[in-house]
Amino acid sequence: MVGEGMGLDHVSFTSAVSACGHEMNLELVKQIHGLTIKSGYGSHVSVCNVLISTYSKYEVTEDAKLVLLCMNDRNVVSWTTMISIDEEVYPNDVTFVGLIHAISIRKLVEEGEMIHGLITMYAKFESMHDSIKVFEQLNCREIISWNALISGYAQNGLCQDAL
Length: 163
Description:
Blueprint: H1 10-23, H2 26-38, H3 45-57, H4 61-70, H5 76-85, H6 93-106, H7 109-124, H8 128-137, H9 143-155, H10 159-162
Helix pairs in contact: 1-2, 1-3, 2-3, 3-4, 3-5, 7-8, 7-9, 8-9
């Protein structure tokens, strides 16, 4: 493309990096990464997301972290990819409070159902304290969330609390 005088854009770069990732050619990925920076696409969210994902496939986590740090805008793909590859990055209470708040104000039903699953998961891990924390952060407590909490109490032998 470049040899024919055609300009490269974020779609060209994401496609090229992705193809190199499938071909297991890390050296070429690094070369394309350098070209994205020279071409002004080194901080573009789509380009960076595919770079982070590709570097993670090669287990080059330091390069993936550097890409994340160079990004002007990070989205859910950026953060999810980093969390999934970095054993030092864990969601904490603030992460979950922010998640619950975002789901509540945007009325995201499917995502809200995942929160109910979080209440259930903590209960199964015998961590009712964390289940209660998630439950208390909900702006709208519906039958599903109440059932998840009550079931958690029962599963953990806290029958009095369940009532």
